[in-house]
Amino acid sequence: MRTPLDAQEIQFKCHAMKSFPGPSPAFLKREVSDRFEAGTNSTLITNATILTGKGNDTHTFHGDLYLDKGIIKAIGALSHLNFANMANLSVMNANEGWVTAGLVDLHTHLGLMSAPFTAGASDFNSKNGPILPFLRDIDGFNTHDEAFQLAIAGGVTSVQVLSGSENNIGGQAVVVKLRRTSEGSASSMLVQPNGTTDDSTQWRYLQQSCGETPSEYGNRPDTIWALRSAYAEARDILKAQDDYCSKVEVGLSDTLGPFPENLRLEMLVDVLRGKVKVTSQCQGVVDIDALVRLTNEFEFSIASLQHASEAWLVPELLNRTWGGAPSVALFATNHRYNVNSYRGSEFAPRVLADAGIPVVMKSAHPVINSRYLIQEAQQAHHYGLPPHLALASITSVPAAALGLDHRIGSLHERADADIVLWDSNPLQMGATPTHVWIDGQLQIPLPPRSDRTGPIQIGVGKEGEHWTEFPPVPNWDAERKQAIEFEGLPPLTPQKHGKVVFTNVREVWNGRLHQVRRPGSNVVNVAVENGEIICIGVCPEDAVGADAYVDLNGGAIVPGMMTFGSPLGLEEIRSEPSTGDGAPFDAFREKVPRILDDPGAILSAMDALMFGTRNALMAYRSGVTTGTVSLKRPINTFEGGGTNVIAGISTTFSTGASHAMEKGAIIQIFTALHVTIHKPHPFSKQRQVSVSSQIAGLRRLLYGWEDQATETGKWFKRAAEGVVPLVIDVASADIMATLLILKAEVENRLGSRMRMVFSGAAEAHILAKEIRDASVSVVLDIKPTVGTWDDRRSLPGPPLSNYTTLSALVKEGVKVGLKCQEAQDAHRLRFDLAWAMLASNGLMDETEAYALVSTNLQDILGVTTEGRGDLVAYAGGSVYQTSSKVAAVISGERGRVDVFVV
Fold first, then answer.
1. For the segment 604-642, what is each residue's pLDDT rounded down to a tens digit?
2. CATH superfamily of 492-559+869-902
3. Fewer C-beta neighbours within 10 Å, C or N terminus of the chain?
4. What is the C-alpha to C-alpha distance for residues 33 and 406, in angstroms, rounded to an integer?
5. How much is the pLDDT for 3?
6. Residue 76, CB half-sphere, CA atoms under 13 Å: how many?
7. Which PANTHER family does the annotation name (predicted)?
């Protein structure tokens, strides 16, 4: 009987079905990496403090690393080896600096949503249906994403690239290394290149989603049914294949038809065979529960649960996942952006770790720029995650979730040569790589190029010995216990007192950032009555009859911080319209209703203020006591949307007030007039207004051509005359130059002096001298990134440039403040401020940096507290120390002290 022509191929397929992913027996004996590029020097790193990270190990030691042909050849005390006469060897003395494995970001959209964002370079969400396991992200991966270099500058060397979450199954993810290869292709960036001989069978990767995110294709039951239906069909294919191969094994090949397979579902068949690392984005408990049931019905495991905001509430449920609990990938503090993340908590990493669940910190770039992945680990550590688990959460744990921990995520012989040398302990705020190697190739410092001049300074201001140590952190046991008790929504109302004595105080600042009591070896008491400091010192007579005594344990009393730029106070949940003000009318895009009787539809943020939102109260408990907010319509990074050209009148309020009629709740009813001038957003679905049209409209309004009996005419007249600041949200240097020319024209025409402010201003450094000479102030985003084309030329700072946009402006004498973008960002303001200060390479001291979020910002926006601004008491250290936390807010305006759990 004649053998079918494809018998050999069928036998190979049947054999391959039984193979399982993982390193081949020869992997640990390899001498050359499959990613090695000829001509790469060997590298010897000596005198290093090495954190191996293997198996979440806390072990550190002083020693050396030898990198050769793309792998780690030796690690430890290597003085017995003879390197003296070795050719093509680069030697780096680490000077006892910290060395870790390259960071692994388990959730990014790098290469699919490429910087700068353009409509033609975004292959994010497919609109072709809910179940798309046949799509491959590698087919849309853009190797020219400018965010790669930023990520490497943060120590990130390997990332998982995921499609969007609007599909129930979005497609096949990829794991890449971020260095540019000599070949220049997407395929050559894969951690495991095609055709590798190092691994017997490679893992594959799948992205799927559940919950409210893939709502375009139905509700929650629709989502789970779509998944069940697809997996049921895949299970039928799997059974048919197994039956087919059973017959092949007994010699019945010649009686069989074609091999049973379906190209559209072959990925799901491999999921059921255990050959795929499945990433599932499920945030709420209801979604996680449905997913767990699905895994048990079809017997497949989940490698990582992404976002998973409520996972920390149900660790026992996670353990019921088929095959064991997945790694849970979280943001450290980025919560409350949708309903499912509303119960997210900064204590979640610690709670999950205590329950034995593997914890991963991730960026979801560009939600958080992948460059700041290390900060996610730092903040998780601050809120209680032990240091070895915090570092493991961005190295060995995500590597294990990818099935690649034999190659990346830890330091051991025969691992890939992805290494980071830090300027300080990596869990210290502001820690920056001085050197990054990927596959043994040096990526940081940047290689010489004609447009780069001189060496880049890194580590200025980190000379003290404490920078080399794991930072101490506060005790959060009480807060964590309460968060668990209230299922993520603990009460945030403080204890209110009239008279409080603070003991063991080391330093005191007044409202204009003058130190009343300098740090020293001795501590003092500070007595406060009705929101006013009445004594600094022993104060025995003032201690009698106090409502409360608060031990600051060597802490500090400083002015409260101010936040600006986000919708704080205008919304409860970013993506839930029913919890906010809604979209204001935009006179540049739509007809303004006659009932408003105002051509520009100018509105006041005062009329939309919401008090007692969780984001505002969290900010208050974190030392951010004041907020200024305008009605600027926020841009959604992923979907676009447009900001209003005329964004109305901002207002300034107390983040800790209960309602608008409470004394001290409204600090300034009318603060500034806001407009927005930007190029069209690449992802916007709305009609876009040209820059020239926006400038023409602004010129007309500032020239006074609008009837001053209208709100539009009145407020633009005040702005033109300098009565109120004109805050212009702008990023492009070209547009800023046009605005500076317009300012001069208006001032010459009216004989006035405008108080123009550039907000955002990513490219402001290009015009630093001109901005200074025009007496224009600037409010910068506190964490610079590359987003749209308008801000592509921003200065990233060390280790990519000596200056940030901030430090370049400060050097030229421009008055600068800092802002944040999202309401949930405000409560981590002091940590972002520490990064900005340290990235300035010593151009700012602590007081000058603190002014960026207090007195400078008040002066720029024209906010006055008449000497009765809030003071914040920190226990356990200063505002910049990770050992401290807010113990109380002293409010002179409201005549009380709000005390928190300490």
1. 999 999 999 999 999 999 999 999 999 876 555 555 555
2. Urease, subunit C, domain 1 (2.30.40.10)
3. N
4. 13
5. 46
6. 6
7. ALLANTOINASE, AMIDOHYDROLASE 3 DOMAIN-CONTAINING PROTEIN
Which of the four pLDDT bands, split at 50, 70 and 90, describes residue 902? low
Banded model confidence at residue 87, pLDDT cuts 50, 70, 90: confident
Say how far apart CA 358 and CA 319 lie, in whole Å.
11
CA neighbor of 59 nearest in space, from 354, 308, 412: 412
Tokens in use for 93? Answer: 């003395």
Residue 304 has pLDDT above 70, yes or no: yes
CB 826 within 8 A of CB 613: no
Work out the angle at residue 896's Cα, subtended by the Cα atoms of residues 890 and 898, and round it to the nearest 5 degrees.
60
Is 561-867 the same fold as 103-468? Answer: yes
Pairing of the two strands 495-497 and 896-899? antiparallel
pLDDT at position 593 over 90: yes
For the chain, which residues make up each domain, given as ranges? 103-468, 492-559+869-902, 561-867
Residue 513: CB atoms within 10 Å: 16
**How long a stretch of residues is the chain?**
902
Question: What stretch of H or E contains 33?
Answer: none
Is the predicted pLDDT of residue 537 greater than 90, yes or no? Answer: no
Q: Using an 8 Å Cβ cutoff, are 336 and 319 in contact?
A: no
What does CATH list as the number for 103-468? 3.20.20.140
Handedness of CA 322, 327, 329, 330 (dihedral sign): positive
Q: Pick from 408, 443, 407: which is nearest to 155 by CA? A: 443
| Cβ-contact 32, 42 below 8 angstroms | no
Q: Please compute, for residue 266, the number of CA atoms within 13 A of its CA located in the half-sphere on the CB side.
A: 12
Nearest-CA neighbor of 677 among 650, 706, 645?
645
Using an 8 Å Cβ cutoff, are 363 and 105 in contact? yes
Parallel, antiparallel, or unpaired for β 327-330 and 304-306? Answer: parallel
- Flag whether pLDDT at 76 surpasses 70: yes
**Short-list 124, 133, 118, CA closest to 161:** 124
Check pLDDT > 80 for residue 761: yes
Q: Which of 437-446, 487-496, 782-791, 878-887 has the lowest mean pLDDT?
A: 782-791
As given in the structure block, the two tokens for residue 130 are: 């809910």
Roughly how many angstroms between the first and final C-alpha of the chain, as a whole number? 84
Q: What is the pLDDT of residue 839?
A: 94
Q: Is 561-867 a CATH 3.40.50.300 domain?
A: no
pLDDT of 737 higher than 70: yes
What sign for the dihedral angle of Cα 601, 604, 610, 614?
A: positive
Collapsed DSSP state (helix, strand, coil) of residue 744: helix
Residue 58 pLDDT > 70? no
Cβ within 8 Å of residue 631, ≥6 positions away:
570, 581, 584, 603, 604, 605, 608, 644, 647, 648, 674
Which residues pair with residue 727 across a beta bridge?
A: 674, 757
Identity of the amino acid at 767: L
Q: pLDDT band at 212, cuts 50/70/90?
A: confident
Residue 281, CA distances (Å) to 114, 264, 269, 790, 809 in order: 21, 22, 20, 31, 41
> Contact 823/856 with Cβ under 8 angstroms?
no
List phi, psi (to 5°) of 159: -140, 150
Residue (of 411, 455, 410, 421) closest to 95 by Cα position: 421
Alpha carbon distances (Å) from 639 to 529, 533, 624 = 50, 49, 30
Here the tokens at position 30 are: 């390899």
Q: What is the mean pLDDT of residues 12-36?
A: 88
Beta bridge partners of 557: 508, 873
Q: Any residues with CB less than 8 A from the CB of 281 and at least 6 apart, and which? A: 165, 207, 208, 209, 210, 211, 213, 305, 306, 307
Q: Please provide the average confidence, as pLDDT, over all residues in the chain.
A: 92
- What span, in angstroms and rounded, lies between the C-alpha atoms of 601 and 711? 8
Residue pair 91/66 in contact by the 8 Å Cβ criterion:
no
Choose among 499, 608, 603, 515: nearest CA to 559: 515
**For residue 544, is pLDDT > 80?**
no
